[in-house]
Automatic annotation (TrEMBL):
Source organism, top-level taxon: Bacteria
Family as reported in the entry's similarity comment: Belongs to the short-chain dehydrogenases/reductases (SDR) family.
Protein name (database record): NADP-dependent 3-hydroxy acid dehydrogenase YdfG
PANTHER family: 5-KETO-D-GLUCONATE 5-REDUCTASE, ALCOHOL DEHYDROGENASE, PUTATIVE (AFU_ORTHOLOGUE AFUA_3G03445)-RELATED
Length: 217
């Protein structure tokens, strides 16, 4: 089955692997990201795999620009089958040095940006549509040295539960995959393997749907 996929927060790691994975299945892959060079490389990878690619440079914390970018991509492909949300902010500050403004800035990207992405994508999604999120063990076992990351991952995991609850009657489901390990170049926590876990999450049985799936390698 070919799918039209939108990846918000596209980068060289897990989201890049996910883009290439979906590209290998055909369909269309839309990429939203903040690094023009990375987007160009990913777009080339998608097209080399024989899929249709589109990319837009956008600051996902800019609500208006994000909505416009998602809408343009939705209008271009006609419908969206999978929306994947990937971004988070890594700031090495503990709770004694992290300011309120810094925390809110990070949460705006790692949690809040999911709202305009989802709301703009919703008119292009129908039964069978899926929303996926790259989760992290930082949600429940945070490292104090990067305190805002744990708040982001806990927040976005919680938000996914609400998204699924509000969309499931329309046949659209949401899931976050909690990566319980540190990303590495090789082994079970290599980006390609984490991407496979995210890809597999959309095929789970709807009668036994889980909105949070741990990936422990």
């Amino acid at each position: 089955m070919t799918r039209n996929v939108l990846i918000a927060g596209a980068g060289p790691g897990v989201s890049g692997s996910l883009a290439r994975l979906y590209a290998a299945e055909g369909g269309s892959v839309g990429l939203l990201g903040a690094d023009e060079d990375v987007l160009a490389a990913l777009r080339a990878d998608v097209e080399a795999a024989g899929a249709t690619a589109g990319s837009t440079l956008v600051d996902l914390t800019d609500d208006t620009a994000t909505r416009a970018a998602v809408t343009r991509m939705g209008e271009h492909v006609g419908h969206l089958d999978v929306v994947h949300f990937n971004p988070s902010a890594y700031r090495e500050k503990d709770p004694l040095s992290l300011t309120v403004d810094e925390l809110l800035e990070d949460v705006r990207l790692g949690v809040g940006a999911l709202l305009p992405v989802l709301q703009a994508a919703r008119p292009f999604m129908g039964p069978g549509g899926r929303v996926t999120v790259t989760g992290s063990m930082a949600a429940d076992t945070p490292w104090f040295g990067a305190a805002s990351l744990g708040v982001q991952k806990a927040g976005v995991q919680n938000l996914v539960h609400s998204i699924d609850a509000v969309l499931k009657d329309d046949g659209i489901r949401a899931v976050s995959v909690t990566v319980r390990g540190l990303l590495k170049d090789e082994g079970p926590f290599a980006p390609d393997n984490v991407a496979r876990a995210l890809r597999a999450a959309i095929d789970q049985d709807e009668d036994d749907w889980r909105t949070e799936i741990p990936y422990a390698g």
